[in-house]
Each structure stands twice: as C-alpha cells, then as structure tokens.
C-alpha cells in the first residue's frame, strides 16, 4: 500500500458502509444505530487501479475527559496521525449540522490533508445539503453514495490530485514483480509411493505465507481489548469499565519474536437468551466468524467469576470449528483463593470438555502484564500441534497396536475390521479409517482411538477428527506395483 486513507466524520453518516465498499468485503458492522464503530479498523482499499490502506474510525463526538466519547475521539486522532489523507464524510440528506462544523474546524487544525465527501447523494433531496458543505472551509465536496457505489470515479480523481500535491506517487511499485508471491502452482497431489505416502495439505502450505491468526474471545468485560493493548504495547483498542465496548471484530497486525500475527479482538458473547438487540446479534455473529477464520483461539475468563456455562459453550464452539484452544484466566492479580480457582477450573474442564483432554490454560493480569510472557509461547506450541503430521506408516503401526490392546467390538455377531488408516488433513489433525462396516463402529471406540492418539503422539488440547470410510486400502494397488 502506497498511502493511507482515514475515513472520519460524525456518527451515522455512512463511514463503515463506505469502508466496506472500498475494501470490497463486509468487514465492518453496519446498522442504523449511531456509534456502531468504536475502535479504528484497518483494511486494504481499492478504487480501480488505486490501492491504499484504509482506516475506518468511530463517529466524532465531544465528551468529558475520561468518557467513552473522548476515548473514541482519541482513537480517531491517532488514525489521523497515521493517515496521509483524511476523508471527512457527512450526510448530504441531513445537511451540514453544528457537529459537522465543529469537527471540520478541528480537522482544519490538523496537518493531515482533508478531502470532503457528501454521502447519500443518490436522491434530489441531497442537493441542498451538498451545497451547504462549502461553508465548512474544506473545499469542494465529492458527491458519493457509499451504499450504491456512486461517485467513486470522482473520489479517485480527487485522491490522485491530492497525493500529487503532497508528493506521493500513487502508482509507486506497480510493476515490481518481486513483491508478488506466485503461489498458483502449489503441488497438492499425492506423492507416488507405498505405505510411506505423505500427503500434502494445501491449507498448511498457504499458512506458511500468511500471519498466524489469533482470536481473543470470551464474555463481556473479561478484558479482551486490554489484553490486545498489552500485547502490542499501545492503546489500540478502547477499554474501560463499561461492558460491551467492542462491537465488531477488529484485526491488528503484530509481530512476536519474528512471527507475524494477526490478532482479532471480538465482542463479548453473552447467553443467547439475553441477546435481544439486533446490533448485539450482529456483534456475536461477527465474533463467531472470527473464530471460524482463526487458527488459535484464546478463551479469556474473568478469574474472579471463574468458568461458567457460557464459557463452556464458547469452548465447545471453538472445538466444533476445529480450532486450537487455549484457556486464559485474566485479572489473576486480584484473586485471593488462587489454588481453589485453579482446581475448580481443572475439574470443570475434565468433566465438561473431555474431547479436549489436556487443553492448556494459564493465568495473568492483562492490565499489568504480569504472567503474560507465557501466553505467546503457548499459542505457538498450540499452533504447531494443530499443524501436526503423522506419516502413514507410523500411523498404521500405531493403529495395529491400539487395536491389539483393545479390538473393535462385534456388532450383531459380525466383527468390524479396520483395515487401514491415514492422516488426510492438518489444521486440525484429521484421520480417515477404512473398515468393512463404518456405520456399525460405536462412538465409544472412536473416542478410545482419539484418546490413545492424543496420548501416544502428545497432542494435548488439540481437536482431533476421525472419519470412518468404507472400502479397501486405496494404496494397496500402488504398494503392490512398487514391490
């Protein structure tokens, strides 16, 4: 990205709608409720051949020192410092309001060049409001419709002109082929061979060229935003005593010990019965999507409250999505009966999450950072286990031993024969077992194999999937061919 563009303006003028339009995805939550966006969000924007880093910001509002409005304005001020150009959006249908005038005066005092844009210009009713904007002293406005995509050609021209005025070449590095990663010819086919066949997982290869995706989830007010701020060493997320400050999932690019990481801060997830407002439903859905696209998920608990049923439901969802899970107890510095809390957590996890036997957990204070040094090594280890591969020959020797210790049961007087097995996928480790009657194999025996596999190959706390297939060994003919 050659330059950075920050979208600013008062609440409910369409900033997030324009952000989604320019990045080409519905990344930011959009609702008629004013003030949906609170933290600043980054993305890669594009208009035709013009590419840039885009920042969506909270609605500008005045507030007392220490208030939520004042904290949101501080986030916008930081976005302006990082941006090369600011795009001030106002609602042409509503016309210029005193709040628009106030913040236009604030923007004129900043060093960042400002482009004025009149949004919601798709109807005649917006014409009066469009001409009112000249009084803001920010030059001629650009007429836009973020919802319908109108006016982007005009915005393109104004952006190019402004960039030239401030000495930035908008097309710098356009023909630099060295910056492009050519991943089109990934070898995803099987390797010819016998029982030592090693599969090639295209998802795992793709993961090697992208950051580790780490999502922080939990109930409201567990300290998720505070944790991310402590990790990256800056006040990137709005924090405070109010529950539910984060409304949509915000991603932050970071690097830990040379490892690129994309952190996802998510909205707090309450019990479904308590979620009634549309906006909160959208926030929870956004958090669930963050889990879906993450690789490692940290479930953050309030150590004073301990683990509750809602936390277990979140953990079960992480497991069902096949993500690596770490459980973290926050606010450990204010807990008095620490031994009792740790024992209670272990007991609940053992009873309620048997499918994640050995899941790792730790405790720290996100506010002070004490104990936090153990989190990322644990995340890296969980990600490594999540990508674990077991060769086919080793897996089948293990399978033969496991079946010898505990043979598969007979069903209706007929013996179930597991002929062969292989790992077919990583992320999470997934295995296929080929047998004569897969539908008759009881779940208890599959759980036995899963527990043995987890213990013998040291895969604690990682979701393991075992799929039953009917048929002969698919590599038998290949093995005979090589004899």
Descriptive account of the structure:
Strands 2-3-1-4-5-6 form a six-stranded mixed beta sheet, with helices on both faces. Strands 8-9-7-10-11-12 form a six-stranded mixed beta sheet, with helices on both faces. Strands 15-16-17 form a three-stranded mixed beta sheet. It is elongated and about 85 Å long. It contains 14 helices and 17 strands. It starts with a strand and ends with a helix. The protein folds into three domains: 4-165, Rossmann fold (3-Layer(aba) Sandwich), CATH 3.40.50; 202-386, Rossmann fold; 392-481, 2-Layer Sandwich (GMP Synthetase, Chain A, domain 3). It is an alpha/beta fold.
Keywords:
GTP-binding; 6-stranded mixed sheet; 17 strands; hydrolase; Rossmann fold; elongated; GMP Synthetase, Chain A, domain 3; 483 residues; single chain; ribosome biogenesis; 3 domains; alpha/beta; 33% helix
């Amino acid at each position: 990205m050659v330059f950075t563009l920050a979208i600013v303006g008062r609440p409910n003028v369409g900033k997030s709608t324009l952000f989604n339009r320019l990045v080409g995805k519905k990344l930011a939550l959009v609702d008629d409720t004013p003030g949906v966006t609170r933290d600043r969000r980054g993305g890669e924007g594009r208009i035709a051949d013009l590419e840039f880093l885009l920042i969506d910001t909270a609605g500008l509002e005045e507030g007392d020192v220490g208030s939520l409005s004042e904290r949101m304005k501080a986030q916008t001020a930081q976005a302006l410092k990082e941006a090369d150009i600011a795009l001030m959006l106002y609602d042409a249908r509503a016309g210029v309001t005193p709040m628009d005038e106030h913040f236009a005066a604030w923007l004129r005092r900043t060093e960042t060049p400002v482009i004025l844009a009149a949004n919601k210009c798709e109807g005649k009713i917006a014409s009066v409001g469009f001409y009112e904007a000249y009084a803001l002293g920010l030059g001629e406005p650009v007429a836009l419709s973020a919802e319908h995509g109108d006016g982007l050609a005009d915005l393109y021209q104004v952006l190019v002109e402004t960039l030239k005025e401030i000495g930035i070449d908008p097309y710098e590095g356009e023909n630099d082929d060295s910056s492009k990663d050519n991943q089109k010819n990934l070898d995803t086919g099987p390797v010819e061979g016998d029982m030592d066949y090693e599969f090639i997982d295209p998802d795992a290869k793709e993961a090697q060229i992208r950051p580790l995706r780490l999502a922080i989830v939990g109930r409201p007010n567990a300290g998720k935003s505070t944790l991310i701020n402590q990790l990256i060493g800056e006040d990137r997320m709005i924090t405070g005593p109010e529950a539910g400050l984060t409304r949509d999932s915000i991603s932050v690019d970071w690097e830990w010990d040379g490892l690129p990481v994309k952190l996802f801060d998510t909205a707090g997830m309450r019990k479904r019965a308590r979620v009634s407002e549309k906006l909160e439903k959208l926030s929870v859905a956004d958090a669930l999507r963050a889990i879906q696209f993450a690789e490692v998920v940290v479930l953050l608990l309030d150590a004073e409250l301990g683990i509750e049923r809602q936390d277990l439901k979140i953990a079960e969802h992480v497991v069902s999505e096949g993500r690596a899970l770490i459980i973290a107890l926050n606010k450990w510095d204010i807990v008095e009966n620490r031994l009792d809390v740790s024992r209670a957590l272990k007991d609940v996890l053992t009873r309620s999450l048997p499918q994640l036997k050995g899941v790792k957990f730790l405790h720290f204070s996100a506010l002070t950072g004490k104990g936090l040094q153990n989190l990322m090594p644990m995340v890296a280890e969980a990600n490594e286990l999540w990508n674990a591969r077991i060769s086919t020959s080793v897996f089948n020797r293990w399978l033969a031993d496991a079946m010898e210790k505990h043979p598969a049961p007979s069903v209706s007087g007929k013996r179930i024969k597991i002929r062969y097995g292989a790992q077919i996928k990583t992320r999470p480790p997934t295995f296929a077992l080929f047998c004569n009657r897969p539908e008759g194999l009881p779940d208890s025996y599959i759980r036995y194999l899963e527990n043995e596999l987890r213990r013998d190959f040291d895969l604690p706390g990682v979701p393991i999937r075992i799929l039953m297939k009917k048929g002969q060994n698919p590599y038998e003919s290949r093995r005979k061919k090589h004899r």
